[in-house]
Amino acid sequence: MSIVNQQSGSAPPADRGAGVQTGQAPPPRTTVPWRSASAPRPPQARRQLAGVRREDVLAVGGALASALAATGLLWTQLAPFTGITGYIVVSWCLFVVIYVTLVAFDNNRPTVRDRVSAVIMHSLAAVVVLTLLFIILYTVFRAAKALVHLNFYTQDLHTTSAFDPLTKGGVLHAMIGTIIEVGIAMAIAVPLGLLAAVFLNEVPGRLNRLVRTVVDAMTALPDVLAGLFIYATLILIFGLGLSGLAAGCALAVTVVSIICRAAYVVLRLVPGGLTEASYALGSGHWRTVWNVTLPTARSGLATAVILGAARAIGETAPVLLTSGYTNFINGNPVNGPMTSLPLEAYELVYTGEKYFVTRGFGAAAVLLALVLLLFATARLIGGRGAGQLTRGQARRRIAASHRDLARYTMSASSAQVPDTRS
Amino acid sequence: MSWLCAGVRSPGPTDTKGDSFVRMAEPSVTQGRVAPVPRKVTARLNPSDRAFRAIARGGGVLVLVLLGLVGTFLFYRATQALHKAGFSFLTTQTWNPDGGGFGIAAVIVGTVLIALVAVVIAIPLSLGSALYISEYAPLPIRRFLVGVVDLMAAVPSVVYGIWGFELVQWKIVALSRWINDWFGWIPLFKVDGVDRNATQPTATSYTSSTFIAGVVVSLMITPIACSIMREAFSQAPPGEREGAYALGATRWGMIRAVVLPFGTGAMIGGTMLGLGRALGETIAVALIISPVYAIQPHILQHGTSSISSMIALKYSEATPFAVSALMAAGLALFALTLLVNVIAAVIVSRSRSGAVSEA
């Protein structure tokens, strides 16, 4: 988008040097400015189109300062207003008004509209980012008193009453429960989801369309219904009891359609040229899928699985209906209730007792840290299209290629080439 | 080794190239010469390919059976309750499955109101942040913001829930009171039992309301709507963008003339996907609202109800028949979210978004 003044071109613009202001009638022809061949051309100034201009910065800064000051005056001296939220909202509105006035002094209507919309877009994006930051920081802040004690990570809650200080009791049982339940859920959902995604991508037919429709429809299933389904079947009909296994199954039902759909989308992005090259070299369907399609989509598939795991860790509603609640460590998924981190956070905050609420926020903070960790891993692995390699992968790929070349030349030089001409 | 003869590639599920290839090769007489009759193409699968297809098909069938089972089981159990309740299921407001009537009139109104509040708040937030990310932000900030929005979608709902329950609920009372003071004459914003001139503020009349639940849910659906809108906006054809700039448009003029029309479908579709998510949200709503099983049209007033939070709060003391009744309510919710999602998908796929421009 960079444009340079194009005045050095061959034909000069028609209105240059027309001499209208002199009062005499201008000659009815265009004049070519005289330019000697030897004289150096005047230096061309590059017109700045992008970037920040000083007037813009001054306008924004001035409007902001005056809005804050005016609202401050309103808040402290003139009107009986209190509260920081109202202060921010009112000063933002004042800021927009003052800014519009400032810009309108020396700009036309479209420019004013452009500036105002830019301010509004920036503000809305800032609101979204700040809200997320605020939620995370608030959770950590409320949890900080519980998180600093080591016993929070090494004990369960079975001897802790509502009035015990935070140096006693922890959420170890919920961490163990989360690991077991999510493990069960992923053990069921990942193979099923990936296999179904491969099926959707590779084997066309009427069944394919049916499966795709059902998977799409089931991503709309409210998560609480997955829990209710497991509750009504495994627990009420088959008598399994509230347990970690039931919770894992409920989570699997929630997550399998999500993983399947995400993996299907990734597999579809594998370039057709790669698979066609594999077929052209004579490999079969299975060989192509195993050696070309799946390795090409590996990072995307890993991302799908990790995001599915992050979803499974955070789900509360299916677990609430199926796992039961206990304060004891329970490592047996088949027998007895098992608490997980989101459920622990929900139940503890719901009690309303001061220390329990703090512990509940602690459980939520641990949960948030787990999700952040999974999310960061997914961003590290994924974010790259199918077939794009990291630098290390590319280096290894090139090294392997060089080894192959050396091997070929070795075998070619050592083996006697049969002479076909004789 | 090859599982198909040359000339036919494995067609993708939506691929019709195979068809057109066969049609193209039909024998026809051109210039007095008989065109070559195509070879008969037969696929010979070797054992490993046959096994692979069987396993893949098995996986598909397994997922189909699992998910189909959930749907049919819900439907089967729900019909038991529906048979008993009959048409009154849609009109009754109370929920006493074991004695007296039960119906979803109150809970479905509560569900829809919470979701609508959430969508009304989420639309400007998601639209603004999507436009900022795709049009205004410099490249490094853009990638950071995409990560932030994705992370926001990955934050567990219970975290939003306890945040709303412990903080927002109390901070928003002032706003609720302000709205009621000035706009209380609108039936939607009316709050019964509070006196505007009372010296003692009546905070508890404003807590646990539809409005607060909607505010919290709106933060959960903003990233969903935002990421769909952003994808569509960033695909707006560069030729048309530069054309708008060349005609002298400002950035906002370009957005209004090119980006927004191009992304209309995605804007509607993304909002509806968010609506579908908001309808089904359970834990945050269950934490915040205090259940009232009567139609609550005043969104600022204490107490409301929603289908999913009713299921979460009522399942434990439910008899088998009451579980059927809950399933009927759940089925109504599922039908609602499915309808919204299908409409959203159709709108997204029908829209111009993703179509390549000729410029």
Describe the structure using short key phrases.
heterodimer, A: mainly alpha, MetI-like fold, 2 domains, B: mainly alpha, two-stranded antiparallel ribbon, 2 strands, 65% helix, disordered C terminus
Structure, explained:
The complex is a heterodimer of chains A (422) and B (359). With 422 residues, chain A is mainly α. Helix content of chain A is 66%, strand content 0%. Chain A folds into 2 domains: 54-137, no CATH class; 172-385, MetI-like (MetI-like fold), CATH 1.10.3720.10. Chain A has helices at residues 54-78, 84-105, 109-147, 151-154, 172-202, 206-218, 223-235, 244-268, 272-280, 285-296, 298-314, 317-322, 341-351, 354-381, 391-414. The model of chain A is unreliable at 1-21 (pLDDT under 50). Chain B is an all-alpha fold. The two termini of chain B are 45 Å apart. Mean pLDDT of chain B is 81; it is low at 1-27 and 353-359.
Shape type of chain A? flat
Mean pLDDT of chain A: 83
Please give the most extensive interface between any two protein chains, plus how many residues each contributes: A-B, 105 and 103 residues
**What best-fitting shape of chain B do the alpha-carbon axes yield?**
flat
In which range does the helix fraction of chain A lie? Answer: 55-70%
Q: Under the CATH scheme, which architecture of the domain at 105-350 in chain B would be assigned?
A: Orthogonal Bundle
Mean pLDDT of chain B: 81
Extended strand count of chain A: 0
Tell me how many strands of chain B there are: 2
Low-confidence stretches of chain B: 1-27, 353-359
Indicate the CATH class of the domain at 105-350 in chain B.
Mainly Alpha
The CATH topology name of the largest domain in chain A reads MetI-like fold
Spatial gap, N to C terminus of chain B? 45 Å
SSE-based structural type of chain A: mainly alpha
Distance between the termini of chain A: 66 Å
The largest sheet of chain B is:
2 strands, antiparallel
Count of all domains of chain A:
2
